[in-house]
Amino acid sequence: MTASALAGRLVTTGGVLDDGVLEVRPDGTIGYVGPGSGWSGPTPEPVDTLAAGYIDIHCHGGGGHTVTSGDPAEVAAVAAHHLSQGTTTMLASLVSAPTPELVAAIEAIASIAETGSSVVGCHVEGPFLDPAHRGAHDPAHLRNPGSDEIARWLAAGADDAGRQTVRMVTLAPELPGAAAAAELLERSGVVVGLGHTGADARGFGEALGSLRRPLVTHLFNGMEPLHHRRPGPVAASLDALARGATRVELIADGVHVADETVHLVFAVDPGRHVVLVSDAMVAAGMPDGDYELGSMRVRVEDGRAWTRTEPPSLAGGTSHAADLVRRCVVQAGVDPVAAVAAATSTPANLLGLDDRGSLATGLRADLVVLDRDWRVRRVMRGGDWIS
Ligand SMILES: [Zn+2]
Asked: In angstroms, rounded to a whole number, what is the distance separating the alpha carbons of residues 204 and 273?
């Protein structure tokens, strides 16, 4: 491949650069990034807007496929679907299931991650969750944290080169054994997200404060709402966020969290601590109808996924990372640089992916070309055009 260059509006971590140029080197990394006036190479191809490729750390499926089945081909199909929509890096998220099924799913995800896929690992979202705040997780598969089970996940996720596929685990901090499990996971380099929880504000805040890389799993969803006399995990999370003491996932799709609430969370953030996540399930990018999320039956109506339980619960999202960024900017009035960071550099930093996540010299050329309306028009991964 020969070097090439693109010219347009660049959304960098430092701000928006109008009339910028970005060079894609033959080795698939980013070369020059700067004003067009400083570029002396070949004539660049004009585009509207360029941002780093999106990173989604909470994604169960999409395009009619799911990452939970234990079938590597299904994991690859989910990755391909989201990649076509601008997600150049993702974690495959597993829902609560019996241990052998989780182990099989982790092995399938590991086999795909080893191929250099956009799936770089997995997020085990259940089974260590509060039954009363389980959302779409099957109550039959919830259990208390245990070091034996975690050891089985980590063994299934380790490849020959010593890399670990299990990169994130969500747990409810009030469960017996949760603190020891969090300690074990962090010692193994795994990010611990706190969520699907019945903890009160104090308990949740203390648990957050004890983590090395604190993260709140989909803030507002899977926990009690903010109430001025029962502040709960939301108050503790926003307080920690305001101090820069935690990162928070946010499903900013206009369904799980209202646009005004999204605006509030970004206003509280002192900078780069919000992580946009799709929580996408099998029906992302698919028509309304009946689907499955793990062992749970789900119906999608008007793009909203609900469990077939009484009462119904939201059962994951049907959007892609690109839809969240667009929604933040267009509907929620979030600063575009902050919205893009929440889907690129912030999740990259959280996962320790220092080779990607922004438009900067030397990083992988993972790019999305956007139009004026923040819709993804083209996608590049590692210097190769995907679409
Ligand atoms: Zn969840």
From this structure: 18
**Cβ pair 216, 193 in contact under 8 A:** yes
Instruction: Report the alpha-carbon distance of residue 317 to residue 314 in Å, rounded.
Output: 8
Q: How far is the CA of 6 from the centre of ligand 1 (A)?
A: 38
Q: In CATH, what class is 4-51+360-385?
A: mainly beta
Note the pLDDT tens digit of each residue in 201-243.
Answer: 999 999 999 999 999 999 999 999 999 999 999 999 999 999 9
Q: 346 is written with which tokens? A: 């912030």
**Measured in angstroms, how far is the CA atom of residue 249 from the centroid of ligand 1?**
11
Residue 107, φ and ψ in degrees, nearest 5: -65, -40
- DSSP H helices, 27-71, are none
Q: In sequence order, which residues have a C-beta less than 8 Å from that of residue 319 and are 6 or more positions away?
A: 253, 278, 280, 284, 327
For the chain, give the mean pLDDT.
95
pLDDT digits (tens, 9 = 90+) for 230-289: 999 999 999 999 999 999 999 999 999 999 999 999 999 999 999 999 999 988 889 899
The CATH number corresponding to 54-351 among 3.40.50.720, 3.40.50.300, 3.40.50.2300, 3.20.20.140 equals: 3.20.20.140
Q: Where are the domains of the chain?
A: 4-51+360-385, 54-351
Section 304-316 average pLDDT: 85
DSSP 163: -
Q: Where is 138: in which H helix or E strand?
A: none
Name the residue type at position 109: I
Q: In this structure, what token pair is assigned to residue 197?
A: 């929880």
User: Which pair of structure tokens corresponds to residue 228?
Assistant: 């001025």
Q: How far is the C-alpha of 262 from the C-alpha of 334, rounded, in Å?
A: 8
Are 330 and 13 in contact, with CB atoms under 8 Å apart?
no
Q: CA-based angle 294:324:373, to the nearest 5?
A: 140
Report the separation in Å between the CA atom of 156 and the middle of ligand 1, taken as the mean of its atom positions: 22
Do 32 and 359 form a contact (C-beta atoms < 8 A)? no
From 253, 279, 323, 366, the catalytic residue: 279
Give the distance (Å) from ligand 1 centre to CA of residue 196: 7
Is 290 assigned a catalytic role?
A: no
Contact 361, 14 (CB under 8 A): no
Spell out a b/e string for 106-144, using b for 16 or more CB atoms within 10 Å of the CB, else e: bebbbebbeeebbbbbbbbbbbbbbeebbbbbbeebbbe
